[in-house]
Design brief:
Radius of gyration: 25 Å
Number of domains: 2
Structural class: alpha/beta
Number of helices: 24
Strand content: 5-15%
Largest sheet: 5 strands, mixed
Length: 535
Amino acid sequence: MLTQSLRISADPIGKWDRYSWLLLGCVVVARMIYALAFCAEYDLAGDEAYYWDWGRRPDWGYYSKPPMIGWLMGLVGFVSGNAEWGIRLAPLVLGSVSLIAIHRLTRIMFSSRVAFWVVVLMLCTPGNAGLNLLFTIDSPLVLAWSAALLMFWCSLEKPDSWSRWICLGLVLAFGSLSKQMMLVFPLLMVIYLLVSPTQRAIIRNPRLWLSILMGFAALIPVIVWQRQHGWITLTHMKEHFDRAEPTWVNHLGWFLQFPLTQAALYSPVTWAALLGVLGVALIRWKGGDRRTWFLVIFSAPALLAFHFLAARQDVHANWPAVFYLSGFVLLAAWMEGAAVVSVGDEATREKWRRNAIKVGLFFSALMYALPMVVRPAGYAGDRRVDGYFGALRGASEAGVKAGEFLSKVPNPERTFVVVMGHRYHAARMAFYMPQQPRVFRWQKDGLIESQYEVWPGPADKKGWDALILYPAAEGGVKRELASSLRKSFNSTSKMGDVEVAIGKGSVRSYQVFLGSSLFAWPDTNKAKASPETSF
């Protein structure tokens, strides 16, 4: 049994295990309450609504990602009745299981005391707070990576166990279907075995290659889907690296910005200590043991590569997230004096841990508090203060008002919904309109810029009417409908406006038009992909 294969001791649960479970239980309850309060204050992020719309049409692939996030969104929608609270609680479940996997890995490698402190360190980071609050592509990826670290180490501990290697293969398959970054994991597995003298012989173990094969085999249907859709995801990924020639100012800005975002996500003291410990481990490589080599291989090379990449281009802050996981384990082991490769005396290590927790708690508390105090403080809609979270306001109210227009059209049973502008507008309208209709996005030039252009357009709805929602431009400027859109219908007429005040003069605004009798729609079958704004 899997439970038996992972058992490390027959002893009763010790006090540090009790501390860990008590801490995790309290944090889960607190985060659940916060997530529900967050629901009441904010709407879904654009990507959350976008992936939810994917979940309504399960497939083997989507425009920019493998299918797992769409499948999970579909499952969450089925369980919760497509309610917002389901999407809010899903990342909490995945994130909590990820923490448990890292705790278990650390306990097996070192001790229950070190495992407790790795959980504390991870909880005291804004990045972990965000991971457990917003249901994006990183939630299933981090879960898969955490579980893969655990299962790979357990498989190394008992290399003749078929069940452990098969479990690893299943985890790799889950991760491969979650995000492209997971494909790096098998490569790091092989690199670790090659550099570890005591475990190099496992390279010849057929169970290892079975697990890797299982991970890649899961992608066969995805590859077939990609071939049928012109390798759309590969084209999208390529666009992230083929950009216009930047200036030296761009390079310098990217190079300086990346470490600042990482320090903010993982707390400055914790981030600095983690990189320092990894650096010492690399310098003193020959003095390490297989635990140190394992944790370093799955962390340091990729983090170093991302810092170099930041000198070339803009690197999204979430890209290296999974490579910090094993680094946190090594950091906790160092702070407890359990790492073979170490530096500093006990007092120094204790000082670093104390400061890391204090500063991490401050940044995490600030991250939790700021979104909830903005409105009471009178800064809702203020771009300098509300920032990212201001974009999460007003979508639900706008959707309700748009739904009222849809209920008043002359032929509701022969009327579809068209949303112009960014894909986030289409996704949020699809979720927040009470009818939760299938939404089409107008892309006049034929470029495939999102999943909405990959899906078939309403060409089969010739003669139907359309409710057209046109978001206001920057600054609330209202624009005329594109002539190409107007010419696609027998006639177009304005029905009214949807306006939702956010605060400080900010308004979420849409013009509402009725297009009568569709007779043409842009063809995107042979269009070239264009990058989305997030990856």
